[in-house]
Give the backbone structure.
Amino acid sequence: MIEPLRTRKLAETIAEHIERMILEGVLRPGEKLASERDLAERLEVSRPSLRDALQLLEARGLLATSRDGTRVAQFLAPLTEPLVALLQSSEQVTGDYFEYRAAVEAKAAALAAVRATDPERAALAACIEAMEAAHVAEDATLEAEADIELHRLVYEASHNLVILHVMRAFSDMLRRDIFFNREKLFAQPDFRVALLAQHKAFAGAIIAGQPDAAERAIVDHLNYTGAAVEAFRRDEARAGLALRRLNRSTLLAG
């Protein structure tokens, strides 16, 4: 009986270590873990103990195993999926979404300007470089992805775990075009030019350790984006109405 108890205790210790890495954002939802053999070597533990630890984390809903391997689970999905259905049913929600983001990200940016480590500042700078390269290449898809990544880096640099996980969930919704069609929006050259300047402004303030400037810049950015989305939707609605009027004869007799 002694050996199983020891194995169980070690498995709990390994599970707690991996769980903390998930909590801290080191391991992100959807990311695939190394193979069992490689992971055991890297953690310097036995494969049976690691296997028990992974099973514990899977039972807690933090890992998901399939034929493809073991991945960090989308553990907020039970909360966000019903929320997605609710949010999609209301036209008001986009304005509320940007209002919420401005409130939360203002704090996140200010915290990041104070708390960011050198590696995190370097990651922000590298993301801006990637965004600039995508902009020059006129690759709207890569630029939009860099946009999401930059905001995620701000959440991480804030060193506030609640902000990190809640806003990551919203980032996933944004990628799925729950609130607006990002591809259509990023296809507009003027919008992309303005966004690049705004991203550079708040990232630069964070890197420079200027919390007030970072907060103002990110709020200005989100207010601008929210207004641009609403204007884009109004233009689409007007264009749709004009088209329906032009084609109304198809619904009339003779």
Residues 195 and 221 are 7 Å apart (CA to CA). The chain is about 75% helix and 5% strand. The beta strands are 63-66, 69-72.
